[in-house]
Amino acid sequence: MPLVSCPICLQSVLAENINKHLDSGCSIHVAPKGEPSSRLNNIAPKKLAPIFSQSHDKHTSTVADGPLAPPSMTQYTPTTSKKRKLQVSSISSKPSKGTSSNLKSAVPLAERVRPQCLDEFCGQKHLTGPECLLTSMVDSGNIGSLVLWGPPGCGKTTLARLLARNMDCNFRELSATSSGTNDVRAVLEEAKVTLSLTGRKTILFLDEIHRFSKAQQDVFLPYIEKGQIQMIGATTENPSFRLTGALLSRCRVLVLERLTNDDIRGIISSAVERVLTSVPRDCEQPESERAASPAVGAESMTSQNPLFQFQPSQALIGCGGPSLPYTQLTDRVISSIVSLSMGDARTALSLLELVLASKPDRDEHALLALLRQSVSASYDRVGENHYDMISALHKSIRGSHGSAAMYWLARMLTGGEDPLYIARRLVVCASEDIGLADARALPLAMAALQACQVIGMPECRINLAHCVGYLSEAPKCTRAYEAYNRAEVAAKSDLTMPVPMAVRNAPTTLMKELGYAEGYNYNPNFRHPVCNDYLPIAFRGDSFLKEVGDLSDKVWDERELLRWEQEENGGRLWEGRSSAQHRR
C-alpha cells in the first residue's frame, strides 16, 4: 500500500488510513519512519478516494535512479499513437544559485530590511509599548480582528506580519486591489477547516480593505463573529466612511501615526547597518578578512556623521571590484531623506537605496537635486489629506490669519486640487464667518467662483488668492450662521406647530372669513414700530438672531488671550481688552 502525505500535517500516512487519520485530528495512524517498503508492498491495495489517488499520464516518462536532466533538455518518448508528443523531463524544484541571486537582487531595499520581530519595529510606541493595548493583546494570545488605519509607509503591513508571527498562527495575505470575493472565500474556508482539524488559527491580512465594496465586506462577518478567522485589514482611508458599521463593530480600529523624523532616522540607521552586515555574507568574504574587520558600530565610530558613525572603509557597496565606501551618505543627504520622506518609511528607504546605488564621488548638490526630483507630491484629492487641508484653509480665514490661509491655498493648488472645490468653500466661508459684518464678502466669493469657471488654472489662482486675502482681513460675524442653527433646533423639536393666524396668507374670501391674516399690522402703513405674532406660541419671546454686540454666549479665556497677545500681537495688549472686560 503506498504512502500518502496528509494535506493538514504533511506527515506520511498509509493510504487506507488517511480518513481515520484526518478524523483523529492528525494524531494517529502516522506511518513510522523507516517503514520497510517490502512490508508496505505486501499489503493488498484498496481503492482510494479520488482526492488521494495518484494519476499517471501514460505518455509521461520519468528517469528512475539517475540524475535529473538539466532544465534546458527535453525528451521524446515513443508512444503507440501515430503522433509523438514532446515530453519535458522532471525539473528539480531547487532553484539554481544564479536564479536565487537574481530574485534576491530584484527585491527592493524596503522589503529586504523589514523587521523580523516586534522588538525591531520602529515607531508607533503608543501601540507597541510595554504597557499598551496591542502588547497586552499579544501577551494574552488573542488579538481578535483589527483594522490598521494610517498613512502610507507607517508600518501597517509589517506590523500585521509580526503579529501573525508572534501569535504562531497561519498567515494569509491578500490585497483588495488584486483579489476578489472568491479569493477571500477560499482563504476563509481553509481557515475554518484548519481550525476544526488542528485547532490552529489563521490570520488573514487584507491590504487596502477600503477598496472592497460593502457587499464584499459582508463576506467576513460570519467568520469573524464565530472566531474562525482573525482578520487584519489595512487602510489609508477613514474607516468610518469606507467600512461598514457591521464590520467595524466586530473589529478594533488601531490608528497608526505618521512616523516622526527620529523614527525615520532610526529606520535608515538600521537599514544601513543591515546592508553593511549582509555584504560580507553575500560576497563570501573570507573568514580571515571578517575577523580583521572591526564590527560596525564599535571601533568604526566617527564624529563626521552622528547618525551612521562608521569608517568609510567598512561601507562596502559592491563585490565585483574594489571596495567603495558610502562617502556620498553625508549628514546633509540623510537630513534631506528624512525631510523628503514626510514620515513615509517606504519613501525613505527608496531614497536611501538610490543614494547607495550612486557613485561615492557623486557631487552632493547634484545628489540632493536628484533626490528632490524623485519624490512626487503626496496630495490625495479624494483622501483624508483633501479634507484636512480645506479645513485648515477655512479655519485660517476664520482666524484672520492671512499668511496661513495663503499657504494652504498654495498647498492645495500645487498638489492638483480642483480650484472650483476651493471656490465653493470660499462662498460658504463668506456667509458662515464674515456674514453680516461685511455685505461685500459673498458677492466677491461668487465672483471668484465664476472666475474659476471661466478662466481656469493656472490664472484663476490669482482670483482665489484675491478672495482668500479679502476674507481673511474682513471683520467676522457669525450671527446669521448661529441664528439659523438655533432656529433649526427649535424647528426640529416640533414640526407640527401651526403658523399664527395673523401672518397666514389670505388670497381668497373664504380664507379671510376663516380668520386668515386677521389682526396683521402692515408695517409700511405705520410711522412707528408695531407688533405682530410672527412666531408660534411656544417660541414667542425667543431670540434666535442675537443683537449686534451681544456676547452673552461667548467665552472669555484669559490664558488664550495672553497667548495671542504674546505670539500674534507682538506682546501688546489687545485694544478691545478694556471694553470687553467692562461688558463682562
Task: Provide structural commentary.
This protein is an alpha/beta fold and 584 residues long. Helices cover 44% and strands 7% of the residues. It contains 26 helices and 9 strands. The chain has helices spanning 18-23, 37-41, 97-106, 109-112, 125-128, 133-140, 156-167, 181-198, 214-217, 221-225, 239-242, 245-249, 261-283, 287-292, 331-341, 345-357, 364-373, 384-398, 402-414, 419-434, 441-454, 460-473, 479-493, 509-513, 558-567, 577-583; strands at residues 3-5, 12-14, 75-77, 85-87, 146-149, 170-175, 202-207, 230-235, 252-255. A 5-stranded parallel beta sheet has the order 6-7-8-5-9, sandwiched between helices. The radius of gyration is 36 Å and the shape is extended. The termini are far apart.
In short:
Helices cover 44% and strands 7% of the residues. The protein is α/β, with parallel strands linked by helices and 584 residues long. The protein is extended, with a radius of gyration of 36 Å.
Features:
584 residues, 5-stranded parallel sheet, two-stranded antiparallel sheet, 9 strands
| E-strand count | 9
Q: Walk across the major sheet and give the strand order.
A: 6-7-8-5-9
Mean pLDDT: 78
Radius of gyration: 36 Å
- State the secondary-structure class: alpha/beta
Low-confidence stretches: 36-46, 48-93, 280-324
- Measured by DSSP, the beta-strand proportion falls in 5-15%
* Main beta sheet strand tally, sense and closure: 5 strands, parallel
- Distance linking N and C termini: 98 Å
Topology:
Elements: E1 3-5, E2 12-14, H1 18-23, H2 37-41, E3 75-77, E4 85-87, H3 97-106, H4 109-112, H5 125-128, H6 133-140, E5 146-149, H7 156-167, E6 170-175, H8 181-198, E7 202-207, H9 214-217, H10 221-225, E8 230-235, H11 239-242, H12 245-249, E9 252-255, H13 261-283, H14 287-292, H15 331-341, H16 345-357, H17 364-373, H18 384-398, H19 402-414, H20 419-434, H21 441-454, H22 460-473, H23 479-493, H24 509-513, H25 558-567, H26 577-583
Parallel strand pairs: 5-8, 5-9, 6-7, 7-8
Antiparallel strand pairs: 1-2, 3-4
Helix pairs in contact: 13-15, 13-16, 15-16, 15-17, 18-19, 18-20, 19-22, 20-21, 20-22, 21-22
